[in-house]
Amino acid sequence: MSSSASHAGSRPIRTARVERIFDHTSDTRSLFLAPVAGSTVRYLPGQFISIAITLPDETRTRPYTIASPPAWGMPFEICFNRIPGGRGADWLFDRKLGDSVEFTGPYGTFSMESAPAAEIIFLADATAVAPIRPMIQHAAAASAPPMMTLLYAARSPDHILYRAEFEILAARANGFHFEPLVLPQSQLYEGLRAEAERRWVRGDGNRTRQFYICGVGKGVIALRDLLRGAGYERRAVHYEQW
Amino acid sequence: MAKLRVIFENGEPERVIEFDPAKAPFHHDGRPGSILDILLGHKIHLEHACGGNCACTTCHVIVKQGGKQLSEPTEEEEDMLDQAPGLTPTSRLGCQSVVEDPNAEITVVIPRYTINLTSEAAEE
């Protein structure tokens, strides 16, 4: 938002401090944010907060998904990567331990209040796994976890975030399957699409699955259209495109 | 010149913006030439928690006049609007609805509440 604009309808602004910094790779970072005065943030797995990016010339509003599940409490984690010309991510990369961050929210309807009983397929690329991770942890902690598969594409093994965590979860044999795909950046969505088509479109006639797709660009829309076009219910194909 | 009249349900005085759609973008959030882009570029605040990326409904507006002079809604916008409280047949997302007609005359209402469905309340 422009700092000189009217703020009619603005929501309560909250403050959190950077409590921990973790670098997944040289261009991918997590900040662990602790709301001030010991307060907490209530959110659903998959939701995001809207951070005020205070640049020299203006304040911009930018969304960052909460990458930690609600059950893990505070601080909460946001995960992001540098992108060319991305002033918001650059600003966040400049935050140091103890720095304050102002935000509103949480927001977003790409979320999971309670795990569906049906099999769940998660499709994500790189940092777009951020909303998926808390959904998986949330569903896995249910008294009767659903069958879940995470098909996760990234351009290098290092960019498969939370790999150890997903592998441990999969090793518990609780119905969670973790399948990383390492592909050239330009082929991430071709790879996801080909696998989705092979398994869940041509593979069988079961159309009761629920899909959660998160990623960047039109590849997300192509996946959505593939699945809806194959007979999955519109509302069974959840997606978030950045 | 196109004309955008903005009515605020919260009682703020209405605003009228005259602009040339060909000069879009006016700001840097939302689709260039969108209602969000136009409002922000003329220093009128419209919430856009997701940065104008069609990932929330906080920029929900109700089009009272000139809906046909806006871009057609995409399936992504329709999917997101399904989640908007106070949805009407002429609801649009400000970040996605682009003024295409250089002589458009459009009136929009900014709803009092643009809450985003779930768990918005934050505990202190």
Task: Name the features.
heterodimer; A: 242 residues; alpha/beta; Elongation Factor Tu (Ef-tu), domain 3; Rossmann fold; 2 domains; disordered N terminus; B: 124 residues; alpha+beta; 5-stranded mixed beta sheet; 2 helices
Topology (SSEs and partners):
The complex is a heterodimer of chains A (242) and B (124).
Chain A: E1 14-25, E2 28-35, E3 48-54, E4 59-65, E5 76-81, H1 87-93, E6 100-107, E7 120-125, H2 132-140, E8 148-154, H3 163-171, E9 176-182, H4 188-201, E10 210-215, H5 218-229, E11 237-241
Parallel strand pairs in A: 7-8, 7-10, 8-9, 10-11
Antiparallel strand pairs in A: 1-2, 1-6, 2-5, 3-4, 3-6
Chain B: E1 2-8, E2 15-19, H1 35-41, E3 60-65, H2 75-81, E4 91-93, E5 105-110
Parallel strand pairs in B: 1-5
Antiparallel strand pairs in B: 1-2, 3-4, 3-5
Task: Give a verbal description of the structure.
Chain A has 242 residues and is of the alpha/beta class. Chain A has two domains: 14-107, Translation factors (Elongation Factor Tu (Ef-tu), domain 3, Beta Barrel), CATH 2.40.30.10; 120-241, Nucleotide-binding domain of ferredoxin-NADP reductase (FNR) module (Rossmann fold, 3-Layer(aba) Sandwich), CATH 3.40.50. Helices cover 21% and strands 33% of the residues of chain A. By secondary structure, chain B is an alpha+beta fold. The longest helix of chain B has 7 residues, at 35-41. The model of chain B is unreliable at 115-124 (pLDDT under 50). Chain B is globular. Chain A binds chain B through residues 1-2, 4-12, 14, 39-44, 47-48, 50, 60-63, 88, 104-111, 113, 221, 224, 234, 239-242, and chain B through 8, 10, 12, 27-29, 40, 43-45, 47-51, 53-58, 75-76, 79-80, 83, 110, 112, 114, 116-124.
